[in-house]
Structure formats: structure tokens, C-alpha cells
Amino acid sequence: MSGELFSEEEIKKEICRVMSALYRRGLISATGGNVSARIPGSREFWITPSGIFKGELSPDDLVKVNLKGEVVEGYMKPSVETPMHRAIYEKRLDVNAIVHAHNPVATGLALAGVEIQPITIEAVVTLRRVPIVPFFYPGTEDLAKAVAEHILGVRALILQNHGVVGVGFNLVEAETIVETLEEVAMTQWVAQHFGKPPLIPERDRELIMKLYGV
Fold first, then answer.
1. pLDDT value, residue 201
2. What is the 3-state secondary structure (H, E, C) of the chain?
3. Long-range contacts made by residues 64-71, C-beta under 8 angstroms, separation at least 24?
4. Predicted confidence band at 69 (pLDDT cuts at 50, 70, 90)?
5. Is residue 3, in this structure, part of any structural domain at all?
């Protein structure tokens, strides 16, 4: 999926594909996690439904919601995390796709008070900085507000006691962020188990950012 504009039918198919991929990778549970996407510039977005098996969604299962939180299309109940998705879209005009998953290693590191470090090229280029959002009860406006306060200038968040959020211009970018976050978290966990992992030096991080144009 490139940066081109896509039809809503293509977006809906991509949402289902991403959910299936996340389920197969163990980054969401049968009914956990949620994904949304929109046409760039739109004030409406498609989001996964609440309370049904996420590994085999069809486009007809998805729900279209506007930025007021009103359902404008679809027959199922939208994800309980719809307020969080709305808050991100309102805050970030450059974001057209959001993935909320339950990455076990990244979430576990945050619970242990361990932040994601610049230990790999992917951590530096793809993830950059990953803030940890304090715990707020899932699905609440309090969580949505907290996420909105932390989402500026970043591509990923870890929600304390909860999971992760990845954002992107399109679904492939958001999916890549979430998968890379778990990959880096796993690498960091293994390295820390055997000792103190060396970080990429700051001067090299700056060079890497210049080379990759980020």
C-alpha cells in the first residue's frame, strides 16, 4: 500500500487484512485490539467493531464513524476505543491510519518501568521516540485525552497496563510501526537479560536520521 489515495472499499479490505495479520502474530487477542483508517482529509473513518472475533473480519463488519463519534454507516457497535481514535485524528491531520494492539513484550517492558531504547537501526529510524502514557481506563474520554496529549511528534505510544498505539499516513505504515515496536522490544528484553545492551551513540543516531531523511 503506497501513499496514494484509496477508495473506502480498499481501505476496509486493508483494515481486515491488518487485523488478521496482527492476530496471527499474537499482537491482538480474539476480541482485543482495534484498527481504523480514513481517506486523507476526511472527517469520517472506518473502524473495527466491538466484541467479535478479530482474526476473520469482513468489510461488512466495519463501522464508519465521524469525528463527533456518531455512527454514519454500519450495523455493528464500533470499537470501545473509538474516542481514542477520534482524538488522534483530530490532533494529527497527517495521520490516516491507527493500529491499537496488545504487544506483550512492549507492554511488559513498560510495566517494568523500561522505556524503548535506540538499540537498533529500526528503533532509531522507524520508531524514534516512544512515550509511555499513564494508565486510564480503556474506552474513556480520559484515555483519549491523554493519548492526544502524547501523540504529537511521535509514531508510537505504549499505554501503561494496556497495549500500544501506532499511527501512520496509511495502514501499512501504522502496521509497520506496531510490528517494529514489538521486534525492538523483544530484542531489548533479550539483550537486557544477559547484560546492559549498548545503545547506538547519539552522533550516529543523528547521522542515521540525516541519511534516511527523517
1. 79
2. CCCCCCCHHHHHHHHHHHHHHHHHCCCCCCCCCEEEECCCCCCEEEECECCCCCCCCCHHHCEEEECCCCEEECCCCECCCHHHHHHHHHHCCCCCEEEEECCHHHHHHHHCCCCCCCCCHHHHHHHCCCCEECCCCCCCHHHHHHHHHHCCCCCEEEECCCEEEEEECCHHHHHHHHHHHHHHHHHHHHHHHHCCCCCCCHHHHHHHHHHCCC
3. 67/43
4. very high
5. no
**What is the predicted pLDDT for the residue at 96?**
98
- pTM of the complete model beyond 0.70: yes
Nearest Cα neighbor of 33 from 130, 115, 176, 138 is: 138
Query: Of 8, 14, 81, 173, which residue is the catalytic one?
Result: 81
Domain count, the chain: 1
- Is residue 125 in some structural domain? yes
Question: Where residue 160 sits, what CATH number does that domain have?
Answer: 3.40.225.10
Q: Examine residue 161 and state whether it is found in any structural domain, yes or no.
A: yes
**In the prediction, which pLDDT does 35 show?**
98
Mean pLDDT for the chain overall: 93
- How confident is residue 202, by pLDDT bands cut at 50, 70 and 90? confident
Residue 81 annotated as catalytic: yes
